[in-house]
Design a protein that fits this description.
Blueprint (H helix, E strand, L loop, with lengths): L16 E4 L2 E4 L2 E9 L2 E12 L3 E6 L2 E6 L1 E10 L7 E5 L9 E10 L8 E13 L2 E10 L4 E9 L1 E2 L20 E3 L1
Parallel strand pairs: 3-13, 6-14, 8-9
Antiparallel strand pairs: 1-2, 1-12, 3-4, 4-7, 5-6, 7-9, 8-10, 9-10, 10-11, 11-12
Length: 183
């Protein structure tokens, strides 16, 4: 006697989405930029911003401006190398400035009249793998309210260049207006 069992397989394809508070937010686009840290010349800051289709990026060196409405995740990584290497980064305040750490915030449903930050990341990890020009980013974090933020991105990131001949002061309490403006 043979028994055949059949079941419908769910789509196991990961999508470029963030998940927070029982909602899904699509983040199909992103950019990356790297610059030195004035007070710690042996370290580099890598900024990765993932954002919705309705947002756009404008650049006038050394400022990058994010415009439009929609959803966004901005992550700031500390590394001892100028080139981004495959690694898992753990949350730490940028005041600590140690390699393989990150800090970040996210905002959903931003509009032109309100650039309010929904929440800051308070703990967790981000795994980044780079193959050629493709990035795979896995996010498992908790925000300051204790809610889970998870996500996945797989694709190319737009490279934004900041004049690396200058070293920049790295964020105090995520005050990144001198490097990345949100309009």
């Amino acid at each position: 006697m043979f028994t055949i069992i059949s079941c419908k397989r769910e789509d196991s394809t990961l999508k470029n989405d963030l998940y927070y508070n029982n909602c899904s937010y699509e983040i199909p686009k992103g950019f990356i930029t790297t610059f030195g840290i004035k007070e710690h010349p042996e370290l580099f800051a890598h900024i990765i911003c993932l954002y919705s289709e309705s947002r756009s990026i404008l650049q006038s060196n050394p400022t990058i401006t994010i415009t439009g409405e929609g959803d966004m995740l901005l992550l700031i990584f500390c590394s001892s190398t100028k080139e981004f290497s495959n690694s898992t980064f753990n949350f730490a305040s940028m005041e600590e400035l140690t390699p393989n750490t990150f800090e970040g915030f996210f905002s959903f449903d931003i509009n032109e009249n309100c650039a309010e930050i929904l929440s800051y990341i308070n703990e967790g990890s981000v795994k980044i793998e780079k193959k050629s020009s493709n990035y795979t980013i896995s996010i498992e974090c908790i925000d300051i309210a204790g809610k889970e933020l998870s996500g996945y991105f797989n694709g190319k990131l737009r490279i934004e260049y900041i004049d690396n001949s200058k070293k920049f002061f790295l964020f105090e309490n995520l005050d990144i207006i001198n490097q990345v403006q949100i309009n």
